[in-house]
Automatic annotation (TrEMBL):
Residues 30-51, 298-319 are annotated as: Disordered. Residues 298-313 have a biased composition (Basic and acidic residues). Residues 76-315 form the ABC transporter domain. InterPro entries: AAA+_ATPase, ABC_transporter-like_ATP-bd, ABC_transporter-like_CS, ABC_transpr_LolD-like, MacB-like_ATP-bd, P-loop_NTPase. This is ABC transporter, ATP-binding protein. It holds the Pfam family ABC_tran. GO terms for molecular function: ATP binding; ATP hydrolysis activity; transmembrane transporter activity. The keyword rRNA-binding does not apply. Residues 33-43 have a biased composition (Acidic residues). Keywords: ATP-binding, Nucleotide-binding, Transport. It comes from the Archaea. It comes from Methanosarcina barkeri MS. GO terms for cellular component: membrane protein complex; plasma membrane.
Amino acid sequence: MTLTKIIETLKTKLNASYILKSLEKAAGFSSESDNDSEIDDPGEIAKNIPYGSPARNFAKSPDSGNASKNVEVPLIKLTDVWKIYQMGEVEFAALKGINLEIYEGEFLVILGPSGSGKSTLMNLLGCLDMPSKGTVCLNSKDISELSESELTVVRGKMIGFIFQSFNLLPTLNTEENVLLPMEFQEENRQIARQKVSYLLDIVGLSNKKKNLPSQLSGGQRQRVAIARSLAVNPPIILADEPTGNLDSKTGDYILDFLDGLQKSEGKTIIIVTHDLELVKYATRIVYIRDGEIEKIETHPKNEQSMKNERGTKNEANLN
Ligand SMILES: Nc1ncnc2c1ncn2[C@@H]1O[C@H](COP(=O)(O)OP(=O)(O)OP(=O)(O)O)[C@@H](O)[C@H]1O
């Protein structure tokens, strides 16, 4: 299938003009040579991701209105959330009454020391676990009311996970690891392969397609994990210590890339970390300690640029 044909197919599927512009740019971009060149400005490159957000309205409640206009409705809402682990006779409350609203297009950094409950919170935000008490709503839908198969669909379409341990399958090569989420979504194989090729281009790993994870460096594995997390174009990216164990150059590259996704694609980025360095990217910072929210800070400059971006996008949508 030619690229023009693919664009035409996606045009009917995605129906959004700014995505088509990106696709056309991508057409030129993906034909570039196969090299593992470091990319100078990952934020700029993230602006050209050739996808739309078909999953954006998934599980949208009837009263949540038009998602593109209704930025007042939280994408994720936690109400008095507790997580209590049972160890024999002993109970341990890892989260104690968390209230948090996360909006579309935010770059949220959840900051806290070791053992404060960050990963526990991340698992709830990613629908990987259920609260012991309280509610977690995604697009106004209580996730505890979803069946296991509905949860699998939500996770597959709505959320891209980037874990510290990368979670790459050791027996699959780079290309196959990135392809995997699309196979679950029963994506057209040829289009899926085009997307994989494009994603590996943008993370600078075109010449590592056939390498197994054990044949990659830590930074390269992290980049495969990022490409895989973007494979089905989820509106939410959840990252657990995305720069842990990486050298500062690779770490900066990955953060600039995520920053670009948030700014230009309006993706909601949620990062949990104990690394204070990451707060410079945040629109809001949630400080967590001993299972409780200590304080929430807004980063006025980043928030303003998010609002400006939204304004431009809404104007573009109206034209
Ligand atoms: N399955 C479990 N059973 C019992 N206690 C648990 C379980 N998982 C986590 N905990 C406890 O809950 C608390 C929060 O753990 P969590 O992994 O969420 O912290 P964290 O902030 O992510 O820590 P780190 O930064 O070290 O990864 C810790 O005290 C931990 O020991």
